[in-house]
Design brief:
With 196 residues, the chain is mainly alpha-helical. The protein contains nine helices and no strands. It has two domains: 58 residues, no CATH class; 101 residues, no CATH class.
């Protein structure tokens, strides 16, 4: 009995030690992940990225933010939006001026807006009111990210979408101040993440 318990404890310790990586080992894995991603080896990049995830805290703050964006992008392109969304949220929280992350997050939130819009158009009565409130809340969640992306990388389509949301909500004040807000936001734009 004692040998059996000793064996189980030894195996458990060995498996924990096997998974625990030093900061240098995690960073080397991160470099391998980036190389696979840049060379278009998507499946391998996803696998390497998922191996990094349990030890991601050992990366520097900037490398971690870059990793989160890259993994989010890989997940999104692999039709795993549920996994991509929280990673994009971490990117925007860490680097709010990174407009590429803002646009990615706006796109993810926009999917929910589109979903709610279809349900809203097919509803009536109390259900319409409930869905309308959900729709407006989701639009309000999406707009700041769209505005930052538009401020840093203007697009007629994005601007039209922003304006249509404000018009739908009958928010004339936000429409009037849109250009001034975006002018301020445009002064602090980051288009590339550095991991150094």
């Amino acid at each position: 009995m004692f040998k059996k318990i000793f064996f189980i404890v030894a195996v458990a310790i060995a498996s924990v030690n096997a998974k625990a990586q030093t900061a240098d080992e995690v960073y080397n894995s991160y470099l391998d992940f980036n190389l696979a991603r840049l060379e278009g080896r998507t499946g391998e990049a996803l696998e390497l990225g998922e191996q990094i995830m349990p030890n991601v805290a050992k990366l520097t703050d900037k490398a971690r933010t870059s990793y989160y964006y890259s993994m989010g992008n890989l997940y999104e392109n692999d039709k795993q939006s549920v996994k991509a969304l929280p990673l994009y949220e971490k990117v925007v929280a860490a680097e709010p001026n990174y407009y590429v992350g803002q646009r990615a997050l706006a796109y993810m939130y926009g999917k929910k807006v589109e979903e709610l819009s279809k349900k809203l158009n097919a509803s009536e009565g109390a259900e319409y009111k409930r869905l309308y409130d959900l729709y407006v809340a989701q639009v309000k969640k999406t707009l700041p990210h769209l505005e930052k992306a538009q401020a840093c990388d203007p697009s007629p389509e994005t601007l039209a979408l922003i304006k249509s949301f404000y018009k739908f909500m009958k928010d004339e004040q936000s429409l009037k101040t849109l250009n001034a807000r975006m002018a301020v936001m445009s002064k602090n734009c980051i288009d590339l993440l550095s991991d150094k």
